[in-house]
Each structure stands twice: as C-alpha cells, then as structure tokens.
Amino acid sequence: MPRLLSFAVFLAIWWIAALLAGDAKLPPPPAVLGVMAAEARSGDLFFHLGATLARVALAFTLAMALGAAIGYLMGRVRLADRLGDPWLILLLNLPALVVIVLAYIWAGLTEVAAIAAIAINKLPTAVVTLREGARALDAALDEMASVFALPPWSKFRHVVLPQLSPYVAAAARSGLSLVWKIVLVAELLGRPNGVGFEIGVAFQLFDIPLLLAYSLSFAAIVLLIETLLVQPFEARASRWRPRAA
User: Fold this and answer.
1) How many CB atoms lie within 10 A of CB 154?
2) What is the mean pLDDT of residues 100-124?
3) Which CATH number does the domain housing residue 51 bear?
4) pLDDT tens by residue, 160-169
C-alpha cells in the first residue's frame, strides 16, 4: 500500500509538472505510456531491456565472484592486503568513464570490453565489503572448528560462510546499484543495443517521450529485481542475526 501511494504521488507530480512545463519539455504520462506500448508491441523494448539485463547479469556475477575471493584473501592474509590495498584505492577512485573508454580503446567496441569495464568498476566495492567481513570473522568460532577437526569445506560452509553472508548481501546490493548506472554509460558510448543505446538515440533526436519510455521501463525492472530478489536475499542472509526489540 505505501508503494502504491508513492507511485500515485509520483504520477500526480509528473502530470502537474507536465502541465506547467508544456508537452515539448515534459510529456504527460499518457504520451510516454503510448510510446512505451508502441515499443513493446514492436518488440524493441523487450530486446533492448534483455540486452541490458544480460550485461548486468554477466558483469555483476563476474565482479562478485572475483571481489569475494580477493576480498576474503585480503581480509585473512596480511601480505595480500598490503599488496592489494594501493590497487584497491586506485580502482575505488578511478572514474567509471575512464575505465569504459580505456576498455573500448584497448579491446575495441566489443561485448567483452563492455562487460569487463562494468565488472572492473563494480569490483573494488565488493572487495572492500568482503575484506571487512573477513576481518570481522569470530576467532573463537575458528578455533572451535579447528578443535573439532572440521574439513576445510565444512569449516567454510558452516562457520565462515554464515558470518560472511550479511557482507555478501551488502556487497550485492551496493554493487548492483552501481552496475545499473554504469551499464547505461557503457551502452551509450559503445554498444549497438540496450537501454543506454536507445537513450542515446533519443537524445540525438530530442525525442523526450522515447527517452522517458526507456528510462522508466528500466527503472521498473530495477525496482522489480530489488523487490523480488535483492531484498529477500538480504533478509535471508541476515536472518541469523538478533533483531533489535
């Protein structure tokens, strides 16, 4: 109910702003919905959304896998932390645009370059979060696992992973929000399809209804994934933690 109310308020503000600004600058909701419906009927909307989601899924999975492994290593091994920290600081502060442009220059305007650039931009946030999680592991539980001579996999599965789960969830949430933004820039600069590409075309044509149609469709997908996947995963990962009264 609160979300429906929030959506209704958004539509009301949009409609009022459209009346004040004029259709040329801000089309009203029916005009944008008409363009969205036309793009959906032609299949273009689903094609470009699918291309963007595929890039998000690949880049996010790659960055999370590498980031979790590197972050855990840096959190547990002091030498690895000292060696990797300067590179981590560099990647955290390097603008995403620089990474994307360099990837396209070095690897060409290819799918591999786009996914690699998106993953590299997300990687340091995952490393930082998982490194802090590895540093926060309970030493007493580690000693208990050694006393009971748990095999390495069982120790990781039943002792380490439950403690790291909240950090994995936090890295996933923050990283996914970052990937959503970066993928559009990568598509705008160097891909022939995707939501970012269509937004670039709409900008060149000054087609505001088309721009808003793709932007709002993308936002709807983001909210859907956040509600159906990210929030339930975060709640499940943190279910063992005691809740405040």
Assistant:
1) 12
2) 93
3) 1.10.3720.10
4) 777 888 888 8
Residue with tokens 């009203």: 28
Query: Residue 99's domain spans which residues?
Result: 31-237
Assigned token pair, 118 = 């998106």
Mean pLDDT of 143-159: 72
Distance CA 115, CA 194 (A): 13
Inside any domain, residue 6: no
Q: Is the pLDDT of residue 21 over 80?
A: yes
Residue 137 lies in a domain: yes
Nearest to 169 by CA among 119, 130, 221: 130
Structural domain count, the chain: 1
| 108, pLDDT greater than 80 | yes
125 in a domain, yes or no? yes
Contacts of 129 (CB under 8 A, 6+ apart): 67, 71, 167, 170, 171, 174
Query: Would you say residue 13 lies in a domain?
Result: no
In the prediction, which pLDDT does 51 show? Answer: 95
Residue 1 has pLDDT above 70, yes or no: no
Enumerate the H helices of the chain as residue ranges.
2-21, 29-42, 44-76, 78-93, 96-107, 111-135, 139-147, 152-155, 161-190, 195-205, 208-225, 231-237
- Determine the Cα–Cα distance for residues 244 and 29; give it in Å rounded to an integer: 42
Tokens representing 77 are: 């091994």
pTM: 0.86
Q: Which two tokens stand for residue 152?
A: 């390495």
pLDDT digits (tens, 9 = 90+) for 128-140: 999 998 888 877 7
